[in-house]
Amino acid sequence: MAKALKIPQSFNFATGKMTYYYVEYRLPIGADNFLSTAAYASEPSGVFVHLGTDGDATGYLLDMTPATVNPTFFHDASLAVGTTYTDPGSGMSITPMWASSSWGGIYVSMP
Questions:
Q1: Are the beta carbons of 77 and 64 closer than 8 angstroms?
Q2: Nearest in space to 46 (alpha carbons), one of 105, 108, 109
Q3: How far apart, in whole angstroms, are the C-alpha atoms of residue 93 and residue 59?
Q4: Domain range for residue 41?
Q5: How far is Cα 4 from Cα 30, in angstroms, rounded to an integer?
Q6: Residues 70-90, buried b or exposed e (16+ Cβ, 10 A)?
């Protein structure tokens, strides 16, 4: 079973490096057990989307609910089931289709 999807986002011709979306469905177990605490009760069921570049150890968790203001950010960062994120540059879209207590499914559309 896949733990995450790596989706190409862009290629930087000056550096020769790819940037990718990393899409993951995280469950409140093990290292992610904190997701089951009351502080994360408002986190919708969905997927987390990160942006990362080859050779760069720093990845960026993207805020999939930018209309909300949350000082702890991670509490509402996921892309909820039934909502769609569309990359403004490429038109690629990610839609979580369903989520259960053990796994989830997403739909990715590449133009």
A1: yes
A2: 105
A3: 20
A4: 4-109
A5: 17
A6: eeeeebbbbbebeeebeeeee
Instruction: Say how many domains are in the chain.
Output: 1
80 and 98 in contact (C-beta within 8 Å)?
A: no
Q: Measuring CA to CA, how many Å separate 90 from each of 79, 86, 111?
A: 19, 8, 7
Q: Give the C-alpha separation, 6 to 90, whole Å.
A: 15
Tens-digit pLDDT profile for the chain (111 aa)? 567 889 999 999 999 999 999 998 877 677 777 666 666 655 667 788 999 999 888 888 888 877 776 655 566 778 889 999 999 988 999 999 988 777 788 999 998
Is 42 within 8 Å of 10 (Cβ atoms)?
no
